[in-house]
Every structure is written in structure tokens, then in C-alpha cells.
């Protein structure tokens, strides 16, 4: 069956067809490197990693790009607090993200850093000004004029018809119902880091960063844009507005968003004491493989309740898989093949493929694998698995 994905833009499950047959261009919003990544972040990154792997397994040539946001409000504030440069402050957390991703067996995409594209962002903004979509304020900042983009709200499905023309918001993150002209470029405040550019000194707003880097790497119109559901508004809505205003083309055709993570039934919060980074969990003795398994047990569009009982259950599942593999690879088998085992392996592989083709249904895929494990263990006990069956079963 063809891959079907839920497209946030249309609000529908759709067959996935890339712009160029056989080739997929995808972009994912990566980390803002002001702190260590938490398990909610990594649920999204693992979901996108699974999608990337499945697209390649399905035969697509995939160019997968992810940004590293290494300049934003929090980073500027924290770097100034610590008396270090932005680059010095973010280097530690960028490295931590790469290490944590490798720990969770996340394949590394093409990584692009915001601070390496400042001049391109300034040029992008200048073009928006020339087209009438952006304007400069007296302090040297630049804002996007939302009223010039009538389709604003098409991703988040919000009605912004009554928004105030010319009202501005200059923070990177703001209330979900706050639709005002947003900052493209921020003039420096005393003591803040800034860059010299043809449009003046300052630094980019958060939203412009992803538009510029994704379009540079993938072109003005590409196949798939991914991220957490918290980015739908304002970040991704703003990306669409500024990108399509400049290019006159659809920005991304499919939008893939992973749901929030709950911890023991509550929203993760430092104040509740239920906020965990990957490193917190590893230091508590939990294996990365168990964490990854748990973060994929519930399909990406469903709410996942992360519990420590669930983590123990995930560890048990991973151990069963390892024992199964060990049993198949360390035992001696009679020559030949058992048609029933060949059929089971083929049916399992098809069930997994069908499940993942159905909007990346990881729960169904895992269920198919454990059905095979149970049936194969029964066959092993009865000496019904033969030598030629081993690779087929391992490959399923």
C-alpha cells in the first residue's frame, strides 16, 4: 500500500507523492540549543527519524535537513548572563544534542546552523521589504506585515480576520492566539550580541531562520516539513507566510507534527518535578534502547503518557527481542527450510510495512513483530525452524 500521512495543512490523511518522483526533500525543526534536550523533544526527533528511515526503505532518495537554532531570545539572554559569546554558549548544548541523538540511534541528517546563515537572512528580509511584505521600525528592527498575506492561519486553522493591522510582537515565542506582525530582525539592545549586515546591525528572529535555511537547502518548494505540534503556531505559520510571500510558491506540501508528551499523566514541567532529559534517565540506569522503544510505542499523532512502569515494560520488550535474536543466531538447525516459517517471515514483513505505510503506525508494527516472535518461539521449541529460515525471520 502507498504511504499515507496525516497532513496538518489539509487536516486529512493523504497518499504521499513527492514533487520529484523517487526523490524526497524533507526538513525538520531541530533543537534550540540553550539547554539539554528533554524526552518530549526526543519523541519528535525519533518520530521524524522513523519517517526518514521508512522513506529510504521504501526506495526514495531522501535529502533530510535539520536546523540547529543557535541564536534566539533565550540564548542571547543566557549568554549575556554567563558573560560568554553566543557561539561559546551554544557549543556545549549542540554537542550534547549530537551525543544524545547518537545514544538514541537517531541517524544524523544534514545539519544547518542559524549563525552560519545570518547574511542570507538579511538578504531575505531585504527582499520582503522590497515586495512590501516587511517594514523597518525606527529602532532598526524589521517586521512581517501579516495583513499582506491573506492566507495567514491556513496551517493552524485559526481565524485571524479581526487581528489589528500594524500591532507588533517582538518575542520569538508567544501566546497561541496572538496574531500580530512578527519580528524578522531585531535591532540590538545594550549588551546583546549582534551581527553587522546590509539591513543594519542586529540578529534574526526565530521564524526567519528556518525559512531561509530550508529554502537554501531544499528549494523554494519542497515535500515535507516536520516538527512538534507546539510549533504549528506561531512558528510554522510564520514560516509559511514569509516564505510564500517571497517565492510565490507553496512552501512545503506535507506537514508532519508529533504530539506532546505527558509524564505520569501530567504535562512535563520542572515545577512538578517530572521534567527529564535523556541524560537524567540514563543516569537513573535506564537503557537508551528501552527509552527509544517506549517513545515509539504510541503512534506519533497520539498522546503518549511516559511512565516509569512503561519504561520497565519497554525494557522487557527489548530484552525479549534480544533473546529472540540470540536464540536464532546461536542455535544449530537442521538443513533446509520450513514453508510455514518462510510464510510467517514474509507475512510479518508485509504487516510491518503496511502498518508504517498507515501514517507511521508504530503500535501495529510492533504488534506484528511480537506475533512473529511468539509463533517462532513455539516453532523453535518444536524444532520446526530450519537453517534457511533463520535469515528470513531475522530480516522480517
3D structure, described in words:
- With 396 residues, this protein is of the alpha/beta class.
- 44% of the residues lie in helices and 16% in strands.
- The chain has twelve helices and 15 strands.
- The strands form four sheets. Strands 5-4-3-11-12 form a five-stranded parallel beta sheet, with helices on both faces. Strands 6, 7, 8, 9 and 10 form a five-stranded mixed beta sheet that branches. The chain has a three-stranded mixed beta sheet with strand order 14-13-15.
- β1 and β2 (12-15) form a beta hairpin.
- α2 crosses α3 (86-103), α5 (206-218) packs across α6 and α10 packs parallel to α12.
- The longest helix is centred in the C-terminal third of the chain and has 23 residues, at 308-330.
- It is elongated, with a radius of gyration of 24 Å.
- It starts with a strand and ends with a helix.
- The model has no long low-confidence stretch (mean pLDDT 94).
Strand order of the largest sheet: 5-4-3-11-12
Secondary-structure content class = alpha/beta
pLDDT < 50 runs, ≥5 residues: none
Integer-rounded radius of gyration: 24 Å
Chain-averaged pLDDT? 94
Number of helices: 12
| H-E order | EEEHEHHEHEEEEEHEHEEEHHEHHHH
Shape, principal axes of CA atoms? elongated
Q: Beta-strand level of the residues, as a percent range? A: 15-25%
**What characterizes the major β-sheet?**
5 strands, parallel
How many strands in all? Answer: 15
The CA-CA distance between the termini, in Å, is 17 Å
Topology at a glance:
Blueprint: E1 4-7, E2 12-15, E3 23-28, H1 39-57, E4 61-68, H2 73-82, H3 86-103, E5 110-113, H4 118-130, E6 134-136, E7 142-144, E8 168-169, E9 181-186, E10 203-204, H5 206-218, E11 222-228, H6 232-247, E12 252-258, E13 261-263, E14 266-267, H7 278-283, H8 288-297, E15 304-306, H9 308-330, H10 339-357, H11 362-381, H12 389-395
Parallel strand pairs: 3-4, 3-11, 4-5, 8-9, 11-12, 13-15
Antiparallel strand pairs: 1-2, 6-7, 7-9, 9-10, 13-14
Helix pairs in contact: 2-3, 4-5, 5-6, 8-9, 10-11, 10-12
Amino acid at each position: 500500500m502507498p504511504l499515507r500521512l496525516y497532513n496538518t495543512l489539509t487536516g486529512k490523511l493523504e497518499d504521499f507523492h513527492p514533487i520529484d518522483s523517487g526523490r524526497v526533500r524533507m526538513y525538520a525543526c531541530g533543537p534550540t540549543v540553550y539547554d539539554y534536550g528533554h524526552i518530549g523533544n526526543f519523541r519528535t526527533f525519533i518520530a521524524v527519524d522513523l519517517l526518514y528511515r521508512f522513506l529510504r526503505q521504501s526506495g526514495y532518495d531522501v535529502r533530510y535537513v535539520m536546523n540547529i537554532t543557535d541564536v534566539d531570545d533565550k540564548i542571547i539572554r543566557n549568554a549575556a548572563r554567563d558573560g560568554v559569546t553566543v557561539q561559546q554558549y551554544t557549543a556545549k548544548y549542540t554537542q550534547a544534542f549530537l551525543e544524545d541523538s547518537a545514544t538514541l540511534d537517531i541517524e544524523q541528517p544534514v545539519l544547518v546552523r542559524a549563525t552560519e546563515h545570518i547574511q542570507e537572512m538579511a538578504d531575505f528580509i531585504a527582499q520582503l521589504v522590497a515586495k512590501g511584505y516587511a517594514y523597518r521600525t525606527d529602532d532598526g528592527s524589521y517586521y512581517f506585515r501579516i495583513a499582506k498575506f491573506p492566507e495567514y492561519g491556513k496551517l493552524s486553522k485559526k481565524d485571524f480576520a479581526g487581528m489589528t493591522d500594524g500591532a507588533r510582537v517582538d518575542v520569538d515565542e508567544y501566546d497561541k492566539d496572538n496574531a500580530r506582525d512578527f519580528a524578522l530582525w531585531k535591532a540590538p539592545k545594550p549588551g546583546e550580541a549582534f551581527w553587522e549586515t546590509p539591513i543594519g546591525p542586529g540578529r534574526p528572529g526565530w521564524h526567519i531562520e528556518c525559512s531561509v535555511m530550508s529554502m537554501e537547502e531544499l528549494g523554494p518548494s519542497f515535500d515535507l516539513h516536520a516538527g512538534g505540534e507546539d510549533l504549528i503556531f506561531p512558528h510554522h505559520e510564520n514560516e509559511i507566510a514569509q516564505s510564500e510571500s517571497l517565492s510565490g510558491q507553496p512552501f512545503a506540501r506535507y506537514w508532519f507534527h508529533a504530539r506532546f508528551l505527558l509524564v505520569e499523566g501530567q504535562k512535563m514541567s520542572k515545577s512538578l518535578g517530572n521534567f527529564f532529559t535523556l541524560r537524567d534517565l540514563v543516569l537513573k540506569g535506564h537503557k537508551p534502547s528501552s527509552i527509544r522503544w517506549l517513545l515509539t510505542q504510541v503512534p506519533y499523532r497520539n498522546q503518549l503518557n511516559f511512565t516509569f512502569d512503561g519504561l520497565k515494560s519497554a525494557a522487557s520488550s527489548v530484552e525479549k527481542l534480544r533473546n529472540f535474536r540470540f536464540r536464532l543466531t546461536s542455535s544449530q538447525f537442521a538443513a533446509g527450510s520450513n514453508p510455514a516459517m518462510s510464510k510467517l517471515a514474509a507475512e510479518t514483513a508485509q504487516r510491518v510495512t503496511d502498518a508504517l505505510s498507515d501514517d507511521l503506525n508504530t503500535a501495529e508494527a510492533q504488534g506484528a513483530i511480537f506475533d512473529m516472535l511468539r509463533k517462532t518461539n513455539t516453532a523453535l521449541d518444536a524444532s520446526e525452524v530450519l537453517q534457511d529460515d533463520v535469515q528470513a525471520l531475522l530480516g522480517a
